[in-house]
TrEMBL record:
This is TonB-dependent receptor. One of its GO terms (biological process) is siderophore transmembrane transport. Its main location: membrane. It is a multi-pass membrane protein. The keyword Hydrolase does not apply. The keyword Membrane applies. The lineage of its organism: Bacteria, Pseudomonadati, Pseudomonadota, Gammaproteobacteria, Lysobacterales. It holds the Pfam family TonB_dep_Rec_b-barrel. One of its GO terms (cellular component) is cell outer membrane.
């Protein structure tokens, strides 16, 4: 049961007009260009507004008084995020293959991102963890905030080729870059990603098997700022390494209403990390939410080899 211990929960409403317009031009029988522009809107999530606060007990050096301070906090004063989106693309369509590539630019106002703020920088504090004790001026709190204007740009490409009557080969690639108005990189941008998949269908299209090979690039160190622990001490951030995983799954349409699905995911039991999952984890030996040691970061890894079997019934 959620308890509003901070007294910050209140009625909120977010509204803004959004629209989208597009045009395409077939300059050759199998080729076309397209343009899309639109205005976007994202209200802050409940978690960003009201997620429970994580706290720590630290000591004021001058007085010896122990105080409880927030290390991770939500922000009930967030404004909605607004964006202007522009995308330009090219398509080619053949008899047995198709290909498309697009470039986009999204301009954000009141962009919502995770920030670390130093609190009470004129007060000295002491704290002890598994690795010993430390002293510093002020302490840090990680929260979400409207960081102002931001720009995200990228390119996406995808294609598919039909190999005979039963086989289909697919491939896709995406690359994104983003920065705030002052040129600071947006740490929330995920590394490049590519997927290659091969599908087979038979038994009058009732049986389908697919294998997907996914590769993600490593997070670039230059796109991530030096992290700080609760006392503002600089710590090297955790970065996601490149990884490659293979998934194998399929389905069988037993009847018009009944379908069986099964899959083996991360078939080769690769240990890997998603940047979106570890970007807010700080390296440190504090027994606090949001901190992990080099040995403890493993609990944030993605699942190893796992299996899934489902049955779908349409009524």
């Amino acid at each position: 049961t959620f308890e509003d211990e901070t007294g910050t929960v209140r009625d909120l409403s977010f509204a803004a007009p959004s629209w989208q317009a597009g045009a395409s031009w077939s300059f050759l029988p199998r080729q076309s260009l397209w343009l899309q522009v639109g205005r976007g809107f994202r209200a802050p999530t409940t978690g960003e507004l009201y997620a429970p606060t994580s706290t720590a007990i630290i000591t004021e050096t001058a007085t010896g008084a122990e105080i409880e301070v927030p290390t991770i906090a939500a922000n009930p004063d967030l404004d909605a995020e607004r964006s202007l989106n522009l995308e330009l693309g090219y398509r080619w369509q053949g008899e047995r293959a198709r290909f498309g590539v697009s470039v986009f630019r999204d301009r954000y106002d009141d962009f919502i991102d995770t920030v670390t703020e130093i609190q009470n920088p004129d007060v000295q504090y002491d704290s002890c963890g598994f690795g010993g004790c430390s002293t510093s001026w002020g302490y840090t709190t990680t929260t979400t905030a409207n960081v102002g204007e931001a720009t995200v740009e990228g390119v996406e490409a995808e294609g598919q080729w039909r190999l005979g009557s039963a086989w289909l080969l697919r491939a896709a690639y995406s690359h994104n870059e983003g920065e705030q108005e002052d040129g600071t990189p947006l740490e929330s941008i995920n590394p490049d990603r590519a997927v290659v998949g091969l599908s087979w269908q038979g038994l009058d299209d009732r049986l389908r098997l697919t294998g997907n090979l996914t590769h993600a690039w490593a997070k670039d160190r230059d796109d991530v700022e030096i992290g700080t622990d609760i006392f503002g001490q600089e710590v090297e951030p955790f970065l996601s390494d490149s990884y490659t995983v293979f998934d194998l799954f399929g389905s069988y349409q037993a009847s018009e209403r009944l379908r069986f699905n099964a899959g083996v995911y991360n078939l080769f039991d690769e240990e890997y990390y998603q940047w979106a999952r570890i970007r807010n984890i700080t390296r440190g030996d504090f027994y606090l939410y949001g901190y992990a040691t080099d040995d403890g970061i493993g609990r944030f890894s993605e699942p190893g080899r796992n299996y899934r079997v489902t049955v779908s019934v349409d009524f």
